[in-house]
Amino acid sequence: MLGVEQIECVAGRGIRGDRFFDYKVDYKGQITFFALADLDALRRELNLPQAEPKATRRNVLVADADLPSLIGKQFEVQGVRFAGIEESKPCHWMDSALGPGAEEWLRGRGGLRCRILTDGILKREG
């Protein structure tokens, strides 16, 4: 995983350059979002201050977003439209990447898998 300044979202295809770009027709996980507040809480509650955002293996980290409320809804970020499809479920790899107990802790807070509805660029803020 790499931190980048911007990503190109391509409607129905994914993120240009991502391993899942053009993976399958109508793929549910063309882009995944993860809430920074959940990463902060995981670090604090599991005493894992070393847990890195890139270890979540999510494409975009966001602040101030109730991601579960976007399942089944369309929404827009920086002018790009998305359809919230389902929770991005954590797997056993999270315990290795983030720290012991991360997989269990992330259930229900694993992020949001989406389809990309319009082309556009997302840029890092802050």
TL;DR?
16% of the residues lie in helices and 29% in strands. By secondary structure, it is of the alpha+beta class.
Main traits of this protein?
alpha+beta, three-stranded antiparallel sheet, 8 strands
How would you characterize this protein structure?
The chain has 126 residues and is an alpha+beta fold. It has one domain: PK beta-barrel domain-like (M1 Pyruvate Kinase, Domain 3). 16% of the residues lie in helices and 29% in strands. The chain is built from three helices and eight strands, in the order E-E-E-H-E-E-E-H-H-E-E. The chain has helices spanning 36-45, 93-97, 102-106; strands at 6-10, 14-15, 31-35, 60-62, 74-77, 80-87, 112-116, 120-123. The strands form two sheets. It has a five-stranded mixed β-sheet with strand order 4-3-7-6-5. It has a three-stranded antiparallel β-sheet with strand order 2-1-8, with no helix packed on it. A hairpin with a 3-residue loop joins strand 1 (6-10) and strand 2 (14-15). The protein is globular, with a radius of gyration of 14 Å. The protein starts with 5 loop residues before the first strand and ends with a strand. The model has no long low-confidence stretch (mean pLDDT 94).
> Which structural class best describes the helix and strand composition?
alpha+beta
Total helix count? 3
Give a quick account of the main beta sheet: strands, pairing sense, barrel closure.
Answer: 5 strands, mixed
Distance between the termini: 20 Å
CATH architectural group: Beta Barrel
- Name of the CATH first level: Mainly Beta
| Residue runs with pLDDT of under 50 for 5 or more positions | none
Average of the residue pLDDT scores = 94
- Shape verdict: globular
Topology order in helix (H) and strand (E) letters: EEEHEEEHHEE
